[in-house]
């Protein structure tokens, strides 16, 4: 069986901010709670402390034919954002800026580990997404 063609790229990873890009060209398989941001893999701060979680501050997206849930990982994942629209509407692109209030903070409960997962909904062959997420790091 084939799988969706996905990529993850870290565009920048500094002391306070990390920017990552995610893409998918679907074969109809989709993604279910796939880890996209592993805070333990991010650059430590200047004091050598590991990043414990991130807040989502800005999102740029282009999505065709499916919806995307960005989820804070926990025993039961908590949806941080849903992006995209109906397949009939065609590609949906946009920009969201949450900096004025400090970003979307990770409010996941039991089992929280700070990571961010991604789930696709309504995906069919040749659906796609490109998502760029800017996050503020907490230690």
Quick rundown:
With 139 residues, the chain is mainly beta.
Task: For this entry, give a set of tags.
139 residues, five-stranded antiparallel sheet, globular, single chain, 0% helix, mainly beta
Topology:
Blueprint: E1 5-13, E2 17-27, E3 34-37, E4 53-64, E5 67-72, E6 78-84, E7 92-97, E8 116-121, E9 125-138
Antiparallel strand pairs: 1-2, 2-9, 3-8, 4-7, 4-9, 5-6, 5-8
Average pLDDT over all residues: 95
Strand count, sense and barrel status of the largest sheet are: 5 strands, antiparallel
Q: Pairing-aware structural class of the strands and helices? A: mainly beta
Shape: globular
**Total beta strands:** 9
* Share of helical residues: under 10%
**SSE topology string:** EEEEEEEEE
Pick out the low-confidence regions. none
Radius of gyration: 15 Å
Strand content: over 45%
Distance between the termini: 40 Å
Biggest sheet strand line-up: 1-2-9-4-7
Tally of contiguous helical segments:
0
Walkthrough of the structure:
It is a single chain. The chain has 139 residues and is an all-beta fold. It is 0% helix and 54% strand. It contains no helices and nine strands. The strands form two sheets. Strands 1-2-9-4-7 form a five-stranded antiparallel beta sheet, with no helix packed on it. A four-stranded antiparallel beta sheet has the order 3-8-5-6, with no helix packed on it. A hairpin with a 3-residue loop joins strand 1 and strand 2. The chain starts with a strand and ends with a strand.
């Amino acid at each position: 069986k084939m799988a969706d063609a996905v990529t993850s790229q870290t565009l920048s990873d500094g002391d306070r901010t990390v920017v990552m890009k995610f893409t998918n060209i679907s074969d109809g398989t989709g993604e279910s709670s796939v880890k996209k941001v592993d805070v333990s893999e991010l650059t430590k701060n200047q004091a050598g402390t590991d990043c414990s979680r991130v807040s989502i501050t800005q999102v740029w997206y282009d999505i065709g034919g499916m919806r995307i849930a960005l989820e804070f990982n926990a025993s039961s994942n908590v949806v941080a954002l849903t992006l995209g629209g109906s397949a009939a509407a065609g590609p949906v692109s946009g920009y969201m800026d949450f900096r004025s209030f400090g970003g979307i903070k990770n409010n996941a409960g039991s089992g929280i580990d700070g990571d961010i997962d991604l789930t696709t909904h309504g995906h069919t062959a040749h659906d796609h997404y490109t998502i760029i997420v800017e996050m503020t790091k907490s230690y």
